[in-house]
Amino acid sequence: MNRRGNETLIIDDLVILGRSSPDTIKDNRVSVCVASYSRTIGFVRLYPTRLDSPLRAWNIVSVPVERNPKDARPESWKITGSKSEWARLSEKITVVGRLKREEKQRLVMPLASGCVLDLRDRGRSLGIVRPRLKDCYFADREDRESAIQMTLLGRALELDKHKYGLQPRVRYFCSNCRLAKGHDQQILEWGIYEWLRKNPGKEDSVWTNLFWKENQQDIYFVVGNQAKWPSSFMVISVLRIPKT
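^ thats the sequence. predicted structure below, dont judge the formating
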């Protein structure tokens, strides 16, 4: 595969695995990173995407994509015309189905790697691991931006994760973890940030809400690295699949 060419295609079997919290790119567009999987081409990262897109977890979509010449990671794509047609970008996405409850485990289980380090060593920038949780916590965000947007009602609309003073993090072991002390990673899950935005003063309750049915669910993490720091992985999304 020529990563430097103008490769374009239509992916018509893309299963959405999750979306990260929004961030603001250089031209002030607010975007989210989408993690997904296609049986035909493997793991796919879509960025940038609009907040109002139908790229919701477990949706199966058809979408035209092209390579991003600024991102050499093999899993990275962007929707065709992502900049020039930004206003109508979500219209290019067609929802063709949705994964059923019993189909989720059958898709995810074979895709899980034994350890995040296995992904790193294989040169992969996106994947799935099955964690054994140690604890979840909030760290002070060192790169917080002070400016916030305001709604017409005068309430803070903190969409960009860099506008939060707290950074959600998790300590865990992979199923076949190669690190004696396990991993300590940032969580980008959009749902966590939505909880923080809507429930000020109840920040710690988000962990109970996220994992309180752990004995009834199989937990997987969708993890990905950063383009500039390929050895640094983060949790993009938390998959909670009911046990069968």
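The two ends are 38 Å apart (CA to CA).
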